[in-house]
Amino acid sequence: DDGGNTPPNPDDGGNTPPNPDDGGNTPPNPDDGGDTPPNPDDGGDTPPDPDDGGDTPDQTPVTTTYPNGLSVTMVPGATTASLTLSGETMQAVKQANGTWLVTDSTGKTYTAQTLDQATGAITGYSIADRKSWTLDATTPTGKKIWTSQYYDVSGKLEQGEIIFTGSMVMENKVGKKYMIDPLQTNTPPVNPWDVSVPDGINDGGRVRVEENAILLNSGSMELDNGVSTNIFGFAPNDYIYVLDSVRLDNGVFINTGTVSGRYSSIISLNSSDIYNSGTISVLGEDGDRANPGTDNVITTSLFILGGDSAQSTDTWTNTSTGVITARGGTSVLSDFGGNIVYSDPQASGSAHDQGTINAVNDGLIDFSLLNSDSAKPDLISPDTLAAVSLGNSAGTVNTFVNNGTMTVSGSTAVAMSGQNNTTLVNNGTINLGDSSLSIAENGTGLVAFKAVGDNVTAYNQGTVNINANDSYVFDRGGSATAHLVNTGEVNVRTGVTSGGLVKGESSSVVDTTSVYRSTVSNYTVGTTAAGTSGTMTVSHADLNDVSVDTGFTSGTAAQTQTFDNVFVGEDIQGAENIQSTSVVWSASAQTDQSGNVDVTMSKNSYQDVVSSDASAQNMAATLDANYTNNALYSSLNLQTASEVDKAMRQLSGVDATTAFKEARVLSQRFNMLADNAIVLPSGFGFNLVDKNDKRSELGNDTRYDMMALSQSFDLSAGQKMQMQYGIARLDGNGIDGKSKAGDNGLTGGYSQFFGINHSVDFGSLKLTNALRYDVHQLESNRSIRYSGVNQTASSDNSQQYMEWRSQFSRGFDVAEGLNLTPSVGVKLRHTNNDAYSERGAGDFNLNMDSSNETAVDAVIGVQMKYAASNGWAMNALLEGGPNLSYTQSAQKASLQGANNASFTMNDDQQGGGFNGVAKMGLSYGGKAGKLAFDAYQWKEDDIVDKGLSLGYQYNF
Question: Are the C-beta atoms of residues 471 and 444 closer than 8 Å to each other?
């Protein structure tokens, strides 16, 4: 058990820090409590960084099974894993902050913090659910158990001590205020220079966050409200007395809102995590009293970190959106040790000056000793801390990396200070003095790096701007042993005097060859339609997870594009790891003679990307042959081959089948309406249904008005003729958002139905021949929905349907009132779908050629009629048969954005199978009315229609 996860590398110079304030992302790892989750193959140690030297990791998955039944399968060193527990399989993906995102079989996600190597139990949390959880089959109540409660601390005022311990989440919500009022001791220590100051000076309001608890501030948080400064009134201020409003002990503090205070601190006693992506402002004595003199300031720090053992690891991150402003002698970050003492009998351990501290600034830090009240003197103290001061104890190992911007102002102000075992790195910008102030206003004696001791290394790999007199990049404080490295840029403002590279020493003491290697990951190179790309300036870096986007494709039809100087700097390794964000393009990186990295993007053939299906390949070849830079082609720059496959299927129109299928259904609805027509003695039949009737519903909320007319007459004693006509008016909403992407839906149109039936009675047999011709003039629209695309195309469609049917039937009475009529015959049908052209979707408009299909079906059936004397009656028809023959013409389509070049498509409709219809009607009639129940199901090829109804007819 390694005692704790290795925290995210703060000095990687490129890693995107976790963003806890996005309203849904899993927050950063609050406290891993033990082993790295889940890495089954290393016995608990942090898996090797895949970019740590170029070694290719073993690609063979390894499965480890734990005592509780958990099995973890993963490639050693990989960032994905498969978990199986109690028959459920879950997927895990490692996050940038070292946690793992676990997705269960229902699609729900959880953040895994720790994996207990001894038992296999996993613990984690979900801010979205406001709870923590445990994954352990040994518990009697199940696998995922919520082990915490959610506490809303919004609007509260803490004037006493409150403890949150264990797996729980406390939140001050957006728009709410949470106040903590620490009560300092009324009597100062007898000896203010005695390091044994019990519990700092806080006797009152304090929030303790311990053992995996999370304090999340999304609103406004006040750390000290009306605190008196009397207790700080000692001079000289040899010791810093800690007024802790928030105390973390294996806990987490996340700020996505605003935090304000004067003298209070947020401290960590052991292995805690602090993340700021909001705004924090502390005033200290700014604008307060600050009497004239050489020691007129209360010296304290907003964040103070430490641990009581070497296994303690603290993580501190100011993210790219984080802004921290410190005034009045209050610094931003420090650790326990030296003059910063803390002793509390209720706290674990008697000292908190051990362990590891990793801190990163990706945002903005503004630290000033200037007094905002011009009538009062600026703040001066020989013991004033730097904006960031680490290594106050020899028992800690510390790293601070600035990737953002740090501005310090006021005499003797220091950006970052390190002692003992501390590494200080600037990859961003340090401003010694505010550029908006005059040189004199910025004060004198400012320093970017104060590095004291044999084991201290200070790297300037970014930019230092000197805007104040007598100010320096480096100051070794007279120790002359710290390692100073400058491979960055130093700019001295015009008019600045007595400044330079190293205070009190020759510039020759600065190492200009050593490097601090950083890792660039989770980084995407943006490209534009103008053919330009983003440029990252970084030296001595390893490129790990880097991709290039395809924004440039909207500005050129070229299938190869080179971007120079995507990475600029010295000693940049890992260019071979650069990939394209799209499977349609390949990225190839080269290092030029200057050491900069250029990237060439080359288009892959669509045929190499999509599936081997003949239709997909034919369409891909057409798209390749007509490639250009328009919205259609840009939309296909998708991440995976599967996404491209699905997009091309939508674009081809292969799924746009609903409109024509509904027309076929409409023909069958006419049959039912005509069969149930009211027939007058003259042989004239009439029936109608309007669109408000439930029987007139089609798919996608389409409705219709329909009328069926017929006229029957006798040709001779054994021959009858019937002529039919019908018309329907369609009214629909088209695609309704619930339909499959790529499909179409009816918005309107008209249909007409023509039929002629002839029957000959041969005595024992009856021959019936029927001829039908239907024509549908349809209006429809089609949806095109995939990543980045949401288009609707409209069109006018036409379908013609012809059917000839011939069958023999014979009826006979089985019993009184019961008649059966078996039949056998054949049906020949032909459908012609006319060509159509879409409009309204620009490059995504589809032109579809006409198509036709012809089929022959065997028809075998039986009809039953039953009429009882007591008013009950039943009619049933069961009819169907196999498809004997089916042919379909090849169909071609073209896309407006692909130069209207044709490709062959297959709509997946097939013949064969069993077609038929089943209908049943049951009714009861009395003197006053009639109750009727009807049900049916019809199938032809892959088109199905079914329904049932219950009605009552009242006579008056």
Answer: yes
